[in-house]
Design brief:
single chain; about 350 residues; alpha+beta; seven-stranded mixed β-sheet; five-stranded mixed β-sheet; 14 strands
């Protein structure tokens, strides 16, 4: 018997938080409701899209609704810049320009708005990308939660670096640029006052300079993805699905900081599904693995780069498995819905 996730299909059903979580519910919402209304767009769901008519230009848009607005390691302003720059980078692109749109709830202290905008401006300046246009709206009390930010980015691709979620191949090495779970656990701990935020901070940062270090490897870099909503589990499942391959990773090779592991144990969370904002996963040709790792480690954002697994030569297409510390194997499923709401 095949079970299907709940999905709005008539006026008696409603949107759930999980429909925006980046897991199976999001995929079903896109496939059954949103994409059909947009003339049936098809193909892999990439972090950024090629701009029609311009082969080397890419575009990405994202909305940020994180709560709280400020957290150790970052805030909604810097996060908005980093998130969009990183989505462009995952298609092998350098950021050229950003737009910023604000939806402000009436009653937001202007001191907080000023702090957010100062952080956003500094993040854009540090990333070397200008904010060229934008919009500002104010809504009534209760019509939004303090502040939402939408950003759109345009990027220019690096020469022969053309990664896609559909290009993973049997034999590829799976490489991770750094530890996982920092962003999601930091935001949740700050929001709920759990106390872990004293030991951890969000990893939010731009990754375009790390990707530029991979440009010389060109066609050997098959896939790049930043594991944000749904964490590493969602990203690996999306890549395995879009490339029709089987992926296996080693639990012992996946770097999980001790405070993150402790927080996840307490909360009953799997670090594999916790959002990140400053690391990427890459699928690269096996014979280029060591050179790619060396190039990544030469950049601060990739200092902790490690090989965590491979694309199997055969196996069920779309399946991701984890080889555990005791040598057993378990399936890593696509997350269903929202375990950590409002983290990006």
């Amino acid at each position: 018997m095949t079970l299907h996730c709940p999905m709005p299909h008539d006026e008696g059903e409603v949107a759930l938080l999980g429909h925006g979580a980046g897991g199976r519910l999001t995929s079903e919402l896109l496939d059954r409701l949103i994409l059909p209304a947009l003339d049936g767009a098809s193909g892999p769901m990439e972090d950024a899209a090629l701009l029609p008519g311009y082969r080397e230009l890419v575009i990405s848009t994202d909305s940020f609704v994180v709560s709280p607005l400020f957290f150790p390691g970052g805030d909604i302003g810097s996060l908005a810049v980093h998130g969009t720059v990183n989505d462009l980078a995952m298609r092998g692109a350098w950021p050229v320009a950003l737009s910023v749109a604000l939806i402000i709830e009436e009653g937001l202290p202007l001191t907080e708005l000023r702090a957010v905008m100062a952080s956003l401006g500094k993040a854009a300046q540090d990333a070397g990308v200008p904010v060229v246009t934008g919009d500002t709206k104010v809504v009534g009390r209760g019509a939004a939660d303090r502040l939402f930010i939408n950003t759109t980015g345009i990027g220019q691709r690096h020469g022969s670096l053309h990664p896609s979620a559909a290009l993973a191949r049997p034999g590829d090495a799976v490489v991770l640029s750094g530890p996982i779970g920092l962003h999601g656990t930091t935001v949740l701990s700050t929001r709920e006052r759990l106390g872990f935020e004293g030991d951890i901070a969000s990893d939010t940062r731009p990754l375009h300079r790390l990707v530029r270090a991979l440009a010389p490897f060109g066609a050997d870099v098959h896939v790049l993805r930043d594991p944000t909503r749904g964490g590493l589990a969602a990203s690996l499942n999306e890549i395995a699905r879009d490339s029709s391959v089987a992926v296996e990773i080693e639990e012992s090779a996946v770097p999980v900081p001790e405070p993150v592991a402790s927080a996840c144990d307490l909360l009953g969370l799997d670090p594999m599904v916790v959002a990140n904002e400053g690391c990427l996963v890459a699928f690269v040709a096996a014979d280029a693995t060591e050179a790619v790792l060396s190039a990544m480690r030469s950049v601060g954002e990739g200092a902790g780069a490690v090989r965590i697994g491979e694309v199997l030569p055969d196996g069920p297409a779309g399946r991701v498995t984890l080889r555990t510390l005791v040598g057993a194997r378990r399936i890593v499923d696509m997350p269903l819905g929202e375990q950590l709401p409002r983290i990006c």
